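Structure in, sequence out. Go:
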């Protein structure tokens, strides 16, 4: 099967699946059943086994002109690390032959439609597709994951209950716990990391891009001229200025906050006599790898019963935005997208997501509900007031960025329904911040709302 190029420059490449699939440890496939899945700036295909009851996989292809091989391989390693820590995520399919002299599994292939990617692997394993050829073309990078069967998404535009929003906060906490030891500065220099074959782990660790929190004020201002008819440029500018009061975060200040928190809690702590598991002591100010895009389309559920208000996660999807940033920001990003299609205010949504995050780390539940004193200690431990201010700023910033980036994508690729259907609701969610008070007032109201939530 060959998928043709399209208008979006990030997705403007053709894909010939057969030679790509030969590189991965997959059975014989029935290409007549292949489905291209909706996507933002990559190309994803669901492929099926040639069998009576076929298994299926997702072949994820990205434009090598925009995403480096190291970045894509990092995503694969993150998914593997999360699975090892008990977080539900897709499993990556390894290549049939790792690079010569390397016994560790590799999960990413390089495919040049005009070059060696069209050739089957050589008998010695030097298949010519693991590194870019000396060519000005823009081929693609590919990795394959298992398709998560018997799962569903949360219904689009449906109201989200407090239980559901708490569940999202718990997901953020699970990812934070699973990622806290992933390629820290010491590990990035050890031999095990070197065997993974990354060219520059330090460069990845300091990687910034247009969706990073430090870039949001600049990137949104640079794209104001693309704001669509459904948005107000004047209102967008007001909101951008509010974001600039919080972001980018001051790196020196964050280091001081991280050090102070570590000095107080790194050896463990108790909440009113109840010991907090050391592994769950997540420093809110530390740098770490985060998912950076937990939204309704990136969480699958094996149980999503809105009548009974019961939810069971089967997988966290799409680690394409994963980056190294301040770990607490994943809470703000998650709350930002949870505000879409909701009557709740941004303060109310953020408060419930934060409460779910705190409850997971502190071990609170309906059967082990905290006292007011216990909850106050836990909130001050995991999301202090200064961190909460950052989260509120990030909640607004990510909504605003998504709306303006969406306007850019509509300009580049008119008629793209995948992008168009998100711009209006995320802009409407952004505008709700215009009805609220100052950032300080909203932060105080958020903390009050966190404390007031009951099981």
């Amino acid at each position: 099967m060959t998928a043709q190029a399209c208008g979006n420059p990030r997705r403007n490449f053709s894909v010939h699946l057969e030679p790509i699939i030969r590189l991965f440890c997959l059975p014989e496939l029935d290409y007549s059943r292949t489905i291209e899945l909706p996507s933002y700036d990559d190309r994803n295909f669901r492929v099926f086994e040639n069998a009576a009851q076929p298994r299926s996989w997702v072949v994820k292809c990205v434009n090598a002109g925009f995403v480096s091989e190291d970045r894509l391989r990092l995503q694969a390693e993150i998914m593997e690390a999360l699975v090892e820590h008990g977080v539900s995520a897709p499993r990556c399919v390894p290549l049939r032959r790792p690079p010569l002299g390397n016994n560790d599994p590799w999960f990413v292939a390089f495919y040049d439609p005009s070059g060696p990617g069209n050739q089957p692997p050589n008998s010695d394993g030097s298949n010519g597709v693991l590194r870019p050829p000396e060519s000005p073309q823009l081929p693609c990078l590919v990795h394959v994951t298992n398709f998560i069967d018997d799962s569903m998404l949360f219904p689009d535009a449906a109201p989200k209950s407090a239980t559901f929003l708490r569940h999202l906060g718990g997901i953020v906490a699970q990812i934070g716990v699973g990622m806290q030891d992933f390629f820290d500065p010491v590990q990035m220099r050890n031999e095990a990391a070197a065997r993974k074959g990354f060219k520059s782990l330090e460069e990845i660790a300091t990687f910034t891009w247009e969706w990073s929190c430090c870039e949001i004020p600049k990137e949104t201002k640079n794209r104001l001229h693309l704001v669509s008819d459904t948005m107000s440029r004047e209102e967008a500018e007001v909101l951008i200025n509010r974001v600039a009061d919080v972001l980018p975060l001051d790196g020196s200040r964050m280091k001081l906050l991280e050090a102070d928190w570590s000095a107080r809690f790194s050896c463990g702590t108790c909440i009113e006599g109840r010991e907090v598991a050391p592994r769950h002591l997540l420093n809110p100010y530390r740098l770490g790898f985060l998912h950076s895009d937990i939204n309704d389309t990136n969480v699958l559920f094996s149980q999503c019963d809105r009548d009974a208000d019961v939810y069971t996660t089967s997988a966290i999807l799409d680690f394409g935005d994963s980056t190294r940033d301040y770990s607490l920001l994943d809470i703000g990003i998650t709350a930002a997208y949870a505000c879409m299609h909701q009557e709740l205010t941004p303060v109310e949504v953020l408060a419930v997501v934060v409460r779910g995050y705190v409850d997971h780390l502190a071990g609170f539940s309906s059967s082990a509900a905290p006292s007011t004193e216990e909850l106050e200690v836990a909130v001050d431990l995991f999301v202090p007031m200064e961190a909460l201010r950052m989260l509120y700023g990030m909640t607004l910033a990510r909504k605003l960025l998504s709306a303006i980036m969406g306007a850019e994508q509509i300009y580049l690729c008119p008629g793209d329904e995948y992008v168009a259907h998100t711009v209006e609701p995320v802009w409407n969610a952004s505008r709700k911040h215009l009805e609220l008070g100052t950032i300080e007032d909203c932060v105080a109201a958020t903390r009050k709302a966190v404390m007031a939530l009951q099981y």
